[in-house]
Amino acid sequence: MVGNVGIGGDNPIRIQSMTTTDTMDTEATVAQAIRMIDAGCELVRITAPSKKEAENLANIKAELRKRGYETPLVADIHFTPNAAEIAAKIVEKVRINPGNYADKKKFETLDYTDESYNEELERIRKSFEPLVKICKEYGTAMRIGTNHGSLSDRILSRYGDTPLGMVESAMEFLRICRDLDYHNIVLSMKASNTLVVVQAYRLLVNKMMEEGMNYPLHLGVTEAGDGEDGRIKSAVGIGTLLEDGLGDTIRVSLTEEPEYEIPVAKTLVERYSNRTTETPIAPIEKYAINPFEYNKRKTNEVLNIGGSNVPRIMADFSLKENIKPASFFALGYNYSVPLDKWNISDMACDYVFLGNKTIDFEVPGTLGLVYLHKTWITQKDKFNTFPFIDAKDYLNNVETHAKLNFIYATLDQLDNAFITKINKDKTAVLVIDTYHPHGMAEQRKLFNELILNNCDVPVIIGRAYGDLSEEQIQLYAATDMGALLVDGLGDGIFIAAENCGSDSLLNSLAFGILQATRTRISKTEYISCPSCGRTLFDLQETTAKIRKVTSHLKGVKIGIMGCIVNGPGEMADADYGYVGTGVGKITLYKEKNVVKRNVPEKEAVEELIELIKSHGDWIEPQ
Fold first, then answer.
1. d(CA 31, CA 21)
2. What is the pTM of this model?
3. How far is Cα 487 from Cα 197, in angstroms, rounded to an integer?
């Protein structure tokens, strides 16, 4: 229980967010908290980096209660045990980060013996016990929130920068709580890398099961960024775990106003309130996939699909009327009339499904045209045209292409005859679909069946959607397809969406899903924190400014952090870092190493560009 809000058990999945105001500004914090609550926020987290902010939580709470708001408050603590102990007597929940709280983080590689390691644990216990006892006395809940980028030197020395290290970091603190008979606990395993997020939470649950524990989980992808990218990345990490049945409360971390996070979280969560179990999926008796580490499924190479190729993207033009050269602009192909040539962008799809529609003009040589089989027969002599064949017709030995055939099937069509035939066919690429309410689980079972039968056919993950908002299609597709891709399943994706947004949006979404799952990099990645009361500059404005001048740097990861707490540790995945270290002062990093300290903010973006240039990662924009 967090105040009057239950987490875990039979309670609904709770939605929360965090204020971005200065905690010492009571009025601004209260006003923002009210906007969040009115939007549907069920827990409001507020940073308390020092004693004075922790003490001011009493004023914030009193003012909210005076205005009729009973929503529980959560104090966000990083380094200061004293602040946590003050806050625990005021608010309903405290969040501590094991990597920072009473532990050491100097990016030093230390060689711990068992004896010295246990001595450190005992020192941590002595610092941590007072907080646990206060929480017990006051009925205060606690989140033990591990962050991938802020693991202590001690944990890193033994477990490395791994999901296992994240889990052990939390478990050490959890065991202390259990020794003191304190159990009002929620756990989190946050990272900006979606693969790490998924693996760490799964591993945490596995470890808890081994030790007879079952504490609720708070889900989130930290520093997800803003806009489309932030939503897709959040859905890949959070959605995958929700699909697994994991997660009791969520926070979507966007570099936007916190009240804008709430509708996104609601859309992710509401999907599960209506999920039916009327059509059960047969249990998987033998699971051939390791859920705790990434391993790409081994597949044949068919033209540019499967094998060592990046996942391919198929767009859907089968419902489009009047297809012209300009129609392909939305798919990353721009035709120049004066030059009579196509310009191909980094986000140009690989295939387009035309169904029974035909076109009468030349398309780029890098784009494959896919027709339903009966139409392909009439087009088969044209360059780069391939058939889309239903599983039943495929078994009836219809005419096929000599090099590449897309075979459409669902799980129930994967009988022995079908698997035997497709496994021998080195021209076949399987396009899978599902009509099940829990489609991701059905498609995961399909992959499992292929692996158990040693079937190495490449697979395009297909999903059909209809009549969704732009945000819904982003979140649903990123969840459904991302959940498979983070486990190394899938050689491409095919989003067939009717009345769900523009062709351009759907194409961008497909590339965004592959980027968020780290399976195909097509653009710059921004690891941008969502801001909080510690932030030392306008994160939204600064992120937009940096994005404007660096968005052409394909594959470069830039961390944009409001303060040192979310600095070199929490942006562990970034190539370059832009971190607030004082009012109007920025420190620049190359990975975890400081390069320039206290750069005036007005000069910092230019200095960042110079830093990128000095390491050979800069290219001039076209």
1. 10
2. 0.89
3. 12
